[in-house]
Amino acid sequence: MFTEMKSRYLILFSILGVIATALIFTLIGADTVTMEIAVQLAFYIVVPYFFFHYYWTQNPDWSFSEVITTKGVKTWLPGIAGMVLVSIAFSLTMFWLQLAILYPVFPWFAELLLEPGEMPGGLGYELFMLLTLVVLAPVVEEFVFRGVFLTRFAAKTSMWGGILLSSLLFGLLHLDFVGSFLFGIIASLLYLRTGNLLLPILFHMFNNALAALSVYVPIGWFAAIDWFLVSSTADIQSKALANVIVLIISALLTAWIIYRLAKGLGEKMAERTRDVPVADQDFR
């Protein structure tokens, strides 16, 4: 189904939707919190709804079961949990690496990155942001990046062209570019290997849930990873060795995960397309 959806239109409508929403709420004098909520709603609900609704109305025979199913998911859950832990460890140590590079040259910027984030709104705002981070973003971003972008780019280039281009766009949308890029590759491989978008959605949800936990849980609760977790500029040097070790191990594990998911995938995709009528093929 995703091959019929134009990725350029989705990109264009997303940009225009965010700009129009920001402009409208600026003109009416909305405060920062209201503006942020409005932009999030436009990006994660309004634009995706109209985009996907248009194609679904044009193709009433489409069904979510074509791309999402609970069948076989249970056997993947332990593996997904392990992938999330590796992804979090890699992202944390990549953050240390960025700080280690920045601090000697731009100490003020490194200190800014280490400042704890503050929620500008009240309880309602916090609940909305938590819902967006843990539920809305994983569902919508997987439909967009692993559904539309991966499928369209793969159809126009190759399987790996689709994986790399969609993951590159995914990385550019996040502050942790390297970690997000590799995260996108793993999520793409999960989808291609199983044909089930629910697996990358769960992978994304578990990852974001741990990220949200770090915002709401006191830093002292993370004693298990305190030996390499960087929370101040003093930690950049004092925990350098620990971070180098975790970075190397998590990078090797990430490479192994990608290798295992990609192993034999080309042949698997070829078999899948041979069993599907040409008009319905998602990847060529």
TrEMBL record:
Q: What class of enzyme is it?
A: hydrolase
Q: Which residues cross the membrane?
A: 9-31, 37-56, 76-103, 123-145, 157-175, 181-203, 210-229, 241-262
Q: Which domain of life is it from?
A: Bacteria
What is the protein name for this chain?
A: CPBP family intramembrane glutamic endopeptidase
Residue stretches making up the CAAX prenyl protease 2/Lysostaphin resistance protein A-like domain: 126-210
According to the entry, what is the taxonomic lineage of the organism? Bacteria, Bacillati, Bacillota, Bacilli, Bacillales
Q: Keyword Plastid on this protein?
A: no
Q: Which GO terms describe its molecular function?
A: hydrolase activity
Q: Record the organism.
A: Planococcus dechangensis
Sorted alphabetically, which Pfam families does this protein's record hold?
Answer: Rce1-like
Q: Which UniProt keywords apply?
A: Hydrolase, Membrane, Transmembrane, Transmembrane helix
Q: What is its EC number?
A: 3.4.-.-
